[in-house]
Every structure is written in C-alpha cells, then in structure tokens.
Amino acid sequence: MSDQRPPTGTDPVAAFHDRYPGADVELGYAGVDTFLKADQYGFDELAVDAAVVGVPFDGATSNRPGARYGPRAIRAKSGWWAYLSGYKGGLTNMQTGRQVDFSQFTVADCGDVPVFPTNLEQTAESIRAHVAAVASQTFPVLLGGDHYCTYPAFCGFATGAGHDRVGLVQIDAHTDTVAESAVFGTDFHGSSTNRIATSEHSDYDAIAQIGIRGYESPDFFEFADDEGLAVFTARTVEQRGIEPVVRDAIEAASDGTDAVYVTFDIDAVDPSAAPGTGTPVPGGFSSDQALRVMEILGQEPAVGMVDMMEVAPPYDHSGETARLAASLLVTFLEHRFGTATHDS
User: Fold this and answer.
1) How far apart are CA 274 and CA 199, in angstroms?
2) How many Cα atoms occupy the beta-carbon half-sphere of 174 within 13 Å?
3) Which helix (H) or strand (E) holds 304?
4) What one-character-per-residue DSSP string does 48-107 give?
5) If pLDDT is split at 50, 70 and 90, which confidence band does 261 have?
6) Do residues 176 and 196 lie in contact, with contact meaning Cβ atoms separated by under 8 Å?
7) Which end of the chain is more exposed for a tag (fewer CB within 10 A), N or C?
8) Which stretch of DSSP H or E encloses residue 232?
9) Is the distance from CB of 284 to CB of 173 less than 8 angstroms?
C-alpha cells in the first residue's frame, strides 16, 4: 500500500483543496451562518455595498414572543442563495428573466447589536448607535426582532446618514400607530410608527402603509386623513394591484424627504405562507406578491435602508417563514445592487 501522506512541509488542507475543487463550494447548510455567507465585520471600515445588522430582541411585543430568534433563522436560510450564486457564478431569476451577477455587489454581516432583554430603553439606545454607525458608511439592512426596534433603527439611520427628514414605507398587517396603551405604555411594537411620526426625523404625511388589514380603532381613517397618513389596505392592493400601490407609497414617502426607510413586517404575508410571526392576521400577501413588492422597492433610489421584522421561528417548524424573509431581502438586494442584463 502506497504512502498517501503529503510530503513534509506541505499544507495538507491546501493539497486537499487542490485535488478536489468541489471542496471550495460551501453548501447552504454548512459553515458559519452569516447573511448570504458574507464576511463578518465590526461596525467600522465598511467598504461594502450593504451591511447586515441583527437585533435579537422581542421584549416589546404585545402578543407571542419569539422574534428574538428571527435574525439567526434568516441568516441560516440565506445560505441557500449564497450557495447557488457561488456555485453557479451568476444566476437567472426565473420570475423576472434577469441575469444577475451576485459577485458585483458586496455584503458584510456586522453581527447582532447588544440587547438588554429587560431594559427597553438601553436596547433602543444600542440599536440607534449601531445603526447610525452603519448608516454613516453604507446601506444598512436590519434583521429583527419585534417591530418596536424599527423606531430606534429609523432614528439611527436618520442621524447616521445625515438626513433631516426621512420617509417611511411600512409593509404590514398592522398600523402600529398607538400613541399610548394602558397596558404597554408608549413604547411597544404597536407604537413604533407613532413614535417615528412624532420624532424629529419624520411625521405622518411622510409615511405610507401597504397591506393593512384586520381591525383598527373606529375613527382610524379619519385620523389618517387628518394626519396625512397614506394607507393602502390589503383590499386596496387586491383591487388596484401591487405595482401601482407600491409606486404611490414611494411617492408619498419620498415627497419632501431626504431618503426613505422601508420596514417589512412579515405578518403582511398571509399566515398560510408565513406562520412564524407573533401577531398573525388571516389574509394578506401571497409569497409571490411579497416578492414583487421587494422587486419594486429595490429599484427605488430613494430607499436608504430596509429591515425585516417579526419573524418568530418557534411558530413555524418547517422554517418557511424565515426562508421567505431571506428571499425577500435577497430579492431587494438583487434589484438594488445586482447587475442585470435583461428584464422580461
């Protein structure tokens, strides 16, 4: 039997990779779970097109907890697209006909911000500081976490990017416009949009909501009209179609603002397709409609930040909710930064 040991002084790992080129292919379920298998960075020297930040916090939810596990689950599911794009070099998006070269844009994963499970104020300060650091350098992508986290992230984006006034496009089943709750106070995931609208960085007439359904207060539409809030309910989307609604929402949120923040609450999607969320509401977008939303938003130059919120893996043992959330973000990034040679 011949001696298969490498000669003295050679690197056995390098020798193995030279012998088997397939060893350089990292499978979607292998390796470290960063978003799109991106390199891990700190919060400085981000010479990349986009940087991902996780917020594993659900201490401000009013219903089912579990969104603290969302960032990890989304990262894990995103590995599939990293595997495909790396293994095949480029990809054809079979929904749009686009030829996409994912190597043409760079993504970093900064990991998770420090959170304090029993201290909402300190967690919010952490989110603001870390998002501001990213926004001062590149395009931030936030993985939540419950929807309250969008409020400090929005403020961090505005200050970090140096914007005076920022618009908001909110894809959601709920309006999150509660000013104060007798149970939850002024700071919980049902108040995030109100906090944004009453902050120094925005107001209601710079906010557009898409996919709202379920129930609200009796005078909600009067309130929306008085405040200038643009509301496109799920029924409106059904009647008018996705594309004109999203275009109108962007127009409303970008009018008189320096940039637009996009927040996507996964409960905007029908719970039959995305059951892993804290406050599911029957009806809502199909997966295909949700993907179309992100295709359109990804092409809008006014958008300066995007987040994906309320993914709660404990309620979806199949992992389809996190898979859809990852796909939605990949779709957005593809249309924002990817090189395309054809659109059908």
Assistant:
1) 31
2) 25
3) strand 303-309
4) SSEEEEEE---TT-SS---GGGHHHHHHHHHHHHHHHHHHHSSEE-TTT--EEEGGGS-E
5) very high
6) no
7) N
8) strand 230-233
9) yes
Instruction: State the helix-helix crossing angle for 70-88 and 320-337, rounded to 10 degrees.
Output: 50
**Which tokens belong to 46?**
């981000």
What domains can be seen in the chain, in order of their start residue?
Answer: 30-340 (3.40.800.10)
Spatial distance between the Cα atoms of 54 and 71, rounded to a whole number of angstroms: 5
pLDDT tens digits, 287-307: 999 999 999 999 999 999 999
Count how many Cα atoms sit within 13 Å of the Cα of residue 6 in the half-sphere of its side chain: 12
pTM of the entire predicted model: 0.92
Q: Which residue has the higher pLDDT, 112 or 1?
A: 112
**Residue owning tokens 């990293």:** 82
pLDDT at residue 82, rounded to an integer:
85
Bridge partners (DSSP) listed for residue 279: none
Distance CA 72, CA 322 (A): 9
Say whether 172 sits in a helix, a strand or coil.
coil
| CA separation for the pair 79, 164 (Å, rounded) | 36
Closest C-alpha to 192, from 152, 141, 132, 143: 152
Residue pLDDT, tens place only, 188-225:
898 999 999 999 999 999 999 999 999 999 999 999 99
Model confidence at 1, in pLDDT bands (50, 70, 90)?
very low
Number of residues written out for the chain: 344
**Measured in Å, how far apart are the chain's first and last C-alpha atoms?**
59
> Do residues 293 and 242 lie in contact, with contact meaning Cβ atoms separated by under 8 Å?
yes
Nearest residue to 132 via CA among 124, 121, 143, 122: 124
Dihedral sign (CA 111, 36, 66, 314)? negative
Residue 2: the pLDDT is 46
